[in-house]
Amino acid sequence: QLQLVESGGGLVQPGGSLRLSCAASGFSLDYYAIGWFRQAPGKEREGVSCISSGGGRTKYADSVKGRFTISRDNAKNTVYLQMNSLKPEDTAVYYCAASGLSYCLMNLRRADFASWGQGTQVTVSS
User: Fold this and answer.
1) Are 42 and 34 in contact (CB under 8 A)?
2) Residue 100, SS3?
3) Which of 74, 21, 31, 72 is nearest to 50 (CA)?
4) What is the pLDDT of residue 4?
5) What is the sign, positive or negative, of the torsion defined by CA atoms of 33, 93, 84, 73?
């Protein structure tokens, strides 16, 4: 059974850091670009970041550039999202998803990602 499982969410103060993990089971992530998305209450799910299958190419939403870093360890079948300098507006449920492609498209569109995890809550609040 193909499955993606996110972990690492939690409550953090503004300016703090969290590292999210996305672990795959039932299939290898090696060949797929992986994206991180987030959805805040009352808002649409938006693309945050994407990493190509080999890890050499990454993309970020403007809102997180310079603060978030995506990486992957194919040997562990896991993708990470390091989030620094967190802001209250980063509060959302964060999802990872596997694309059917090995590279990231120009725009991070939900429709281009086929397999999704269940999400992990990130709350940034003092």
Assistant:
1) no
2) coil
3) 72
4) 95
5) negative
Q: What is the DSSP letter of 109?
A: -
DSSP states of 32-74? S-EEEEEE-TTS--EEEEEE-TTSS-EEE-TTTTTTEEEEEEG
Q: Which two tokens stand for residue 76?
A: 């562990």
Tokens 């089971």, residue located? 25
Encoded tokens for 9: 């969410």
- Tell me the CA end-to-end span of the chain in Å, nearest whole number: 40
CA distance 118 to 3: 9
Token pair of 86, please?
Answer: 């967190």
pLDDT < 70 regions, the chain: 1
Q: How far is CA 113 from the centre of its chain?
A: 12
In this predicted structure, what is the pLDDT of residue 44? Answer: 96
The predicted-structure confidence for 12-34, as pLDDT tens digits, reads as follows 999 999 999 999 988 899 999 99
Q: Token pair for residue 15?
A: 């300016």
Q: Using an 8 Å Cβ cutoff, are 93 and 119 in contact?
A: yes
